Amino acid sequence: MDWRESEILEFKKSTSELKEAVISISAILNKHQEGELYFGIKNDGEIVGQAIGSATARDISQAISNHIEPKIYPSIETVNIKGKSCIKIEFKGEDIPYHAYGRVYIRVADEDKQLSPGEIRKVILKKSSDKFKWEFQFSECSSKEINAKIVRDYLKRANLAGRINFKYDNAPNVLKKLGLVKGSKILNAGQVLFSKDNSLELQVAVFAGVDKITFLDINQYKDNIFNLLKRSEEYLKEKMNWRAKTEGLQRQEIPEVPIDAIREALVNSFCHRDYVAPESNKIAIFKNRIEIWNPGDFPEGFTPMDFIKKEEQSILRNPLIADILYKSKEIEKWGSGLKKIYNLCKENNIKVDFKILKAGFMVIFYRQGWESERDVSGQTTQKTTQKTTQNILAFIRQNPTVTRKELAALVGNITEDGIKYHLAALIKNKTIKRVGGDKGGHWEVLY
Q1: pLDDT tens-digit map of 93-129
Q2: What is the rounded average pLDDT of the residues 211-215?
């Protein structure tokens, strides 16, 4: 081998240059998405060897894991080169831009150059137009595994929206016309959108309080994007509180969070998620909030408010999937999702937060009837108005055999699920207990 540094090969004399090595790995990834680095070789190619202890490989692995974002999982091994022990690191990753110690570098010849914010944006845009990314790669899905009903229903919506002008003949032909097939092979985007047998997973849960200590309901579903969108929306509609509003002879059911805002957050979570990441999309319903989470980094250098208050152009992680969802009007236009959620919540006096997390992105809708306050220690606590709980206790005292359905009608402006949550909290706090089963049983107030 010709021991000479290049744009994909870096040498370090020893692990005393571990920080510089981490920077070089990120720079090579941002330029070529793969490369090699050796400890025990000087930058002029002289092989000097590396002292290797029991913790050496672990220290290298931890430095890479702690200081490169997004995460990569390199191969680290001890090799013998001309009679001297060296450490060889092989690495690859396509989720550019990679950050080392909070900064972005790129490989230029055998040097690592730090990028300016403008240059970082160019890298992101280049990534978005890269046709070799995950959604354009071939899947293992066959045409027999395509859900024809989902394809047919999709095409009807796209025709009604006026964004597709051809009609349904058969599912494989439709996928070809949509650009989801190359040759005879279905792309990854086609599989997650329309396949019957899908590994794409959604986890949903309802928790008894404001944390994840006790759950009242938990499920997971594996399906295509369209079916998961339908399941998740139905789940949230079922678990949310609704109130009745009567105008004249018309009775209107109003959700505690606007359904259009919920729907937009759900679509965004599947449209912009990182499909290479093994994590599931997640919906968590707490007493005080609803969280919708997806894996995948938010565009570097931007905040959610840049897309809400400013006129920033959308930076798409999955442009092919986004285009399919746009054509059937699941998304109205690119880059408008966060603004739509924000405006709908503002119009309905709903507090909403957008959080950029280390491993993903989260939309948080705060449920009505709750407010935040600071306690004496300065920590944020959550409280709800006591009126609902007091009313439930009063009605139980009056009629110990009262049912959840009857309590919902008596309390007003609350669903049976809402009553269920309050009862669970009262049981947990040992305020009440249930004696007997649902039929023939009764409640006892313990104080």
Answers
A1: 888 889 999 999 999 888 899 988 777 776 766 665 5
A2: 86
Question: Any idea what the Cα angle at residue 248 is, between residues 246 and 249, rounded to 5°?
Answer: 85
Here the CATH number for the domain that contains residue 89 is 3.30.950.30
For residue 288, give the CATH number of its domain: 3.30.565.60
d(CA 109, CA 160): 53
Q: Are residues 205 and 351 in the same domain?
A: yes
**pLDDT number for residue 97:** 87
Q: Does 436 lie in the same domain as 394?
A: yes
Residue 13 has pLDDT above 70, yes or no: yes
Q: Could you tell me the CATH number of the domain that includes residue 412?
A: 1.10.10.10
> Residue 393 CA to chain centroid, in angstroms?
39
Taking the C-alpha atoms of residue 197 and residue 194, their distance in angstroms, rounded to an integer, is 9
Same domain for 225 and 334? yes
- For 252, list phi and psi in degrees, rounded to 5: -120, 130
- What whole-number percentage of the chain has pLDDT above 70? 91
Give the lowest-confidence range in 19-33, 164-178, 261-275, 424-438. 424-438
Distance CA 89, CA 77 (A): 7
- Written in H, E and C, the secondary structure of 411-439 is HCCCCHHHHHHHHHHHHHCCCEEEECCCC
| DSSP label at residue 80 | E
The whole-number average pLDDT for the span 247-252 is: 74
C-alpha 251/C-alpha 190 separation (Å) is 42
Of 127-136, 176-185, 437-446, the one with minimum mean pLDDT is: 127-136
With CA atoms as reference, report the closest residue to 223 among 147, 144, 317, 336: 147
Give residue 143's domain range: 136-194
Residue 211 lies in a domain: yes
User: Which pair of tokens denotes residue 253?
Assistant: 């059911």
HEC readout, 358-408: CCEEEEEEECCCEEEEECCCCCEEEEECCHHHHHHHHHHHHCCCCCHHHHH
Mean pLDDT of all residues belonging to the chain: 87
DSSP string, 187-208: BHHHHHHHBSS---EEEEEEES
Give residue 419's pLDDT: 86
DSSP assignment of 137-179, as one string?
Answer: SB-S--GGGB-HHHHHHHHHHHHHHTS--PPPS-HHHHHHHTT
